[in-house]
Amino acid sequence: MLMLLKFLIYWYSLTSACGLAKGTNSDPWRNVTGTSSETFPTDVGFLGNMKYGAKPFLAQKDRLNTTRSNNDSSVEMRWLPWNAEEDAATSDDIFRNLGTTSPYHQAFDLFPETIEHQVLPPQCKIKSAHILHRHGSRYPAGPGGPSSLGRKIKLAQKTGQLKAHGDFEFLKHWEYDLGEDVLVHKGAQELFDSGVKYYYEYAKLLENYDKKPVIRTTSQSRMVDSARYWALGFFGWDMQDKVNIEVLTETFFQNNTLAPYMSCPNPFSPKVLKALAWRFKMLKKATDRINKHVKGITFSSSDVSNMISLCGYETVALGYSNFCKLFTKQDFEEYEYEQDLMHQSVFGFMSVTSKAWGVGWVTEFIHRLKHKAFDGPQTSQNSTLDHNPKYFPVHQPLYVDFTHDIVIESILTALNFKQLADELDGDRMQPNRRFRTSHVVPFGARLVFEVMECDENGDKSEYIRAKLNDAVVPLDGNQGCESRLDGLCRLDNYISHLEKHAFQDSNFDFLCRLKIDENFDLKKLLDGGILSNDDLKQISKTPPGYHEHHKKSDDPLGFALNSKMTRHTRSGFVGRFAQILA
Fold first, then answer.
1. Which letter does DSSP use for residue 530 in this model?
2. Where are the alpha helices (DSSP H) in 37-111?
3. CA proximity to 337, closest of 71, 103, 99
4. What is the model's pLDDT at position 517?
5. How many CB atoms lie within 10 A of CB 478?
6. CA pair distance 195, 183, nearest whole angstrom
7. How far is CA 285 from the centre of its chain?
8. Quick check: 446 and 464 in contact, CB under 8 A?
9. Phi, psi of 389 (to 5 degrees)
10. What phi and psi, each to the nearest 5 degrees, are found at residue 490?
11. Is 238 exposed, middle or buried, given 0-12, 13-18 or 19+ CB atoms closer than 10 A?
């Protein structure tokens, strides 16, 4: 079973998360960065999957009649959950519980202990800033997930079987109108606004820098577009004269620290079984409620999960989604927890491989902090580019890299940010957890490091602090730092700790090259990533009533966790990975 899981995740890594080299010419390599006749080409091919959806018509279709403020949002975000008054629920209980597909929002509540220390200490002066940025809001990834629900509803509409009333009546005429993988206008706005924000925060840093700074992204269409919109917000309409956008090829077997799964497609993660166990338990009440209100079609809990995801996807793509009003605060929280479990177990601290994926960027980060030309250790870096100061400068006062949610999570793990290392349970939700994908890696997420010089009683020293979606991270001993309320850490201590532990703890050579050498550390390999006996006992329990319920539909959960997996259940399982993890 574990080998099957490993293969499916491997398959997903190569096809869904990264996309194939579609849209390229007969010689797809002729214009990539480093071999092109142009120093910084942006039309390098390898755009990934691309499909555009329907045009929005919000002025015509928005039927939510309320005087509640939409906070100048370009899309409709004033929905309240089902039974909102009874549950004392707000719109935040929807749009801050959509996992990795949540629209961008600041996450000050991620670390409430540092809220009073957002302002830079007056004795400190920022010398450089390093920004790691997720792309903006996009269409669903690939043809599975929500689109399969669309086909199911369309079939029921055509046969005349679908009957619905009240808040569910829209299903009688609803059509699936979304594209695939492409950045949507809400995503463009998120990145443009981010560029404007960081212009106000850090533009002064570039005032005396006499070169065009280099910002990096990957070749997928939504990644290149995200970098362009961010640069437009920061540098303005003549950005091409002020910044170089370096596009790293994202395709099979190509080293790229912003897409490390391409050179290490091995996300070995036994604890993903916890996430699968939770799938058997979640959204039961929501599924029963919807099947009572809609006749002529039977929805599985997998269908219901896709409905919740459509609340987010339709909102950012079309500006409006009737699905948002169908679910309670509890439903949204159960959906969020599924995403949290899946991401933490495959790309976070519950994974065996996550540090190996993140260590390439961390090694580059160390060289930037030290203003030192790249000299290894070699992991997922493109050595041709990183050994060339034109493509990997180490003296910039401002760095910006654009990547994916799963890469940011892996980098946080390689940085040993154990402030987010919740060990999540597959049996019940943990309401007091810190790790919430909607807070850590929503669309447009950003991790920022500020390097500063601080004058303490006449003694000038360099410090660093980290901000995750604007929340100051309380750096501590896990990062080689003395715990302080303001989150500051001495830069030399921080660098020293990373140099000592980041590569060693990643087990990159073993996990990505199947090589055992002096860097192999079995204890670090097993730490946190292997299922305990108690875990195995819990997961092995057959969910109550599962077999009885399973007879009522061909696949009530989208996949079956047993040794006799049919073709149908396997495809549902793979589709679920593709949608949750992309």
1. S
2. 58-61, 84-87, 92-95
3. 99
4. 67
5. 15
6. 16
7. 28
8. no
9. -60, -20
10. -60, 130
11. exposed
Cα–Cα dist 440/466, whole Å: 13
Contact call for residues 451 and 488 (beta carbons, < 8 A): no
- CA-based nearest residue to 290, from 320, 312, 274, 310: 310
Kindly report the length of the chain. Answer: 582
Nearest to 576 by CA among 563, 554, 559: 559
Percentages helix, strand, coil for the chain, rounded to the nearest 5? 45, 10, 45
Helix axis angle, 354-370 to 405-414, nearest 10°:
70
What's the pTM? Answer: 0.88
Q: Which tens digits make up the pLDDT trace of 203-243?
A: 999 999 999 999 999 999 999 999 999 999 999 999 999 99
| Strand partners of residue 51 | 180
Nearest Cα to 14, choosing from 255, 262, 295?
262
User: How far is CA 158 from its chain centroid?
Assistant: 37
Structure tokens at 460: 């000038």
HSE-CB at 366 with a 13 A cutoff on CA atoms is 25
Do residues 54 and 176 make contact, with C-beta atoms less than 8 angstroms apart?
A: no
**Residue closest to 363 by CA, chosen among 534, 502, 252:** 502
CA 387 to chain centre: 29
Strands 471-472 and 459-468: antiparallel
Amino acid at 131: I
Residue 272's closest CA among 339, 334, 356? Answer: 339
Residue with tokens 């039974």: 83
How far is residue 181's CA from residue 198's CA, in Å, rounded to a whole number? Answer: 26
Regions of the chain where pLDDT drops below 70: 1-27, 267-268, 517-582
Which phi and psi (to 5°) does residue 495 adopt?
-65, -45
Instruction: Take residue 248 and report the two structure tokens written for it.
Output: 């790293």
Place of tokens 């555009």: 52
Whether residue 47 contacts residue 76, with contact meaning beta carbons closer than 8 Å, is answered with no
**Can you tell me which residue has the tokens 């010398």?**
127
Separation CA 512–CA 490 (nearest Å)? 32
463-479 tens-digit pLDDT: 999 999 999 999 999 99
User: How far apart are alpha carbons 441 and 529 in whole angstroms?
Assistant: 21
